[in-house]
Amino acid sequence: MSGPWAPDFFWREAQRLGYVARSAFKLLQMQKQFKLIGAGASVLDLGCAPGAWLQVACRSLGPLEKGGTVVGIDLKKVHIPSYHCDSRVKTICADVMNLRKDQARTFSPQGMGFSVILSDMCPIVSGITTKDAALSCELGKRALSLAIGNSSCKNNSEFLDSFEDDTSENGVLRRGGNVVIKLLESKDTEAFAKFCKQRFRNVSWLRPKATRSSSKEIYLICQGLR
Hints:
single chain; alpha/beta; Rossmann fold
């Protein structure tokens, strides 16, 4: 088998190590470089299917006695992988685009919000570059809106205006928390970085090694919500 979706090193390694998808290695690289998920963290995984990031996030929490939680949300029902996951992982079938911030907050421990939000959401790719990039931006904005809420968007708030559709001002990301958002590269992606640099202590771009050469995806990594 050949072509852009042929099995490769990362696919084979995922099979060997018990990960449900090669995308696990993208988050593993982020975790190694940026240490996004600490022991006992509370993690919200948006667009969690098929579950590889749930596996990596759970492993990153440390031993079971350290506590922590991983909540995955996806349009489709996602079965929690039996390997690399434990009782700290749960999944919810819901549409992130219609999810209110107060609803999302109830999924967190004691309703106090999450310390890490991961968004590996991606549109169904049409092959039309501009259309796919625009849809990717919409998903990225939604993830940011859920994370930081209205109260963090008073300046240049037009960036997220179309997503401020509920009255809850506070996002579900705790102060000091981290966000990872997948985007498809376009002329608009730099607007994300500019917006986030005003709200996080550190903002970086990463194209993980496990990203296929044909893919336009890139990850925005935001650390330390102000």
